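agent> step 3/5: call structure_predict on target 'RagB/SusD family nutrient uptake outer membrane protein' (Mariniflexile aquimaris).
agent> reason: downstream docking stage needs a structural representation; sequence fetched in step 2, passing through unchanged.
tool.input:
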Amino acid sequence: MKNLIKYILVGVVFTGMIACDNLEPIDENRLDFDFVNSNPAAAEGILLQGYSGIINQFVFSDAATDDAVNNVLDDNYKRMALGELSAQFNPASRWNSFERVFWVNRFLQIIDAGEIVWNRDEDINELFKLRMKGEALALRALHHFYVLQAHAGKGPSGELLGIPYFTEFIEADGNFNTPRLSFAASVQAIIADFDEALTLLPTDYSDSQASVDPWYASYDFGKYKVVNGAQYNLRISGRIVKALKARLALFAASPSFLNGQNGYYTLAANAASEVLNTRGGVSGLSSNGVEFYTSDNIDNAEILWRASIAGNSSTYEKRMFPPSVNGRGEINPTQNLVSAFPMKNGYPATTANGYDPQSPYANRDPRLEKYIVLNGSSFGGGTIKTGVGGGIDRLDSIPQFSTRTGYYLKKLLRPDVRLNNDNTSVDKRHFDVYFRYTELFLIFAEAANEVGGPDQSINGMTARNVIAAIRQRAGITQPDAYLATITTKEAMRALIRNERRLELSFEGHRFWDLRRWGLDLNETAKGYFNDGTSYVELPSVENRNYQSFATYMPIPNDETLKFSELLQNQGW
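tool.output (status=ok):
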């Protein structure tokens, strides 16, 4: 961690300059902490570093699960799934999130010193201090959560351990030899930062006076709007913090961790419902949530938190489109995932429920065709055939380009991108999503069911009502006869987990869900192929090879070698 401190000022000048109207040369001898302590733009540049490294939906870790395989032979997630995961090689590590923790701790040190004048108006100056301190605390909590999610686990003695929790900036020559807290203490430390942030942040950044929170009511609205107006609506807010708190609580309560102890399922359900009820509860489920990524609609009601919309590009489409439409076919969904999509009537896809193995995509959940390129699908400007007669799209036709499972990825890709034969392209805008409302609904459903079963009402919502709304939006035939058969907590748990698998597919959740639920990591990836006369299953496209202790990921080996207080997780 000492190496992180060496770079704590790298980028501050550039970030600060972006906020300056007049870009005049700065004396290099002044680029130290004294300068940062007195320059508002440079100080805010440190805070803005806390916004780097926020996890978005384009991680494609699904290739390390039963949902997909990656066509690229040296892909890190493929290598991990095939048995290379170790304390020396862990592409899912998030230990570097501590770098952002030190950025925001440095900013908190600056703002608590009180030397910077953000605005000559006393009230506006105070409002800036409050808001930015709230941002820093929330970001510190978020980046600690990332580390906890990736590195919590059982230590040498079997105790469930969390992570070191850093609340102070440490100089390069300081003491980084800090022990891991218990898992429960780590969760509490994150919650404490979130809760303090909630006393400082506006619920929403808005130009409407009606949206002003009670703790800001004494300020002149014109001044308030300078600091907390809609121009800041991509910054972390109270609404976002409550959603993140719900995500943390669900993670903590999961079977691999506290397994329902300490009331975290109740906390997750309450935090989620508090946010969702500001949008009408279950009736507020966004109608465009199934394909939230197919346009650059900045007012998309499905998005709780996102980054700014980038310029036109086709980067992801070039990686993922099938080869006949000039893509590289990188991510191949598995038959395992395809089988998880129910029939259109909502019942599982079994022969007893009308599933025909020789007409496998007929009468299926409409999300299947929206998320996955199937044999015969129209996509990217062409018809994609993955079976006999499919040319370069056919299974294993071109190594590292053609599908290995019989499927290509459709979800997250702009369907209106075109990759032309002359190497030109029709590009479209994309945006990083950090949190969707559908995830928050699913957090509520899972937590509420664990508290009291399918019909446990928490703040006017139940797991059954949430899952009913999600499945209705997906296009499941109504009334949902299968959902009506679900009467136990166990049956609803299985259904919620499956709905989460489908709704959040390819957004980076499955990798972590399998671990927090304590499910099998070594389910063999399967495919499905039309051989010209019939469909046949490919029972072993890629064998997973995780160690039995891989539910809990390792602490980086070089960190445990440097710091004697830092205990490694069992097995690594």
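agent> step 4/5: record observation. The domain at 271-309+434-517 is CATH 1.25.40 (Serine Threonine Protein Phosphatase 5, Tetratricopeptide repeat).
agent> proceeding.
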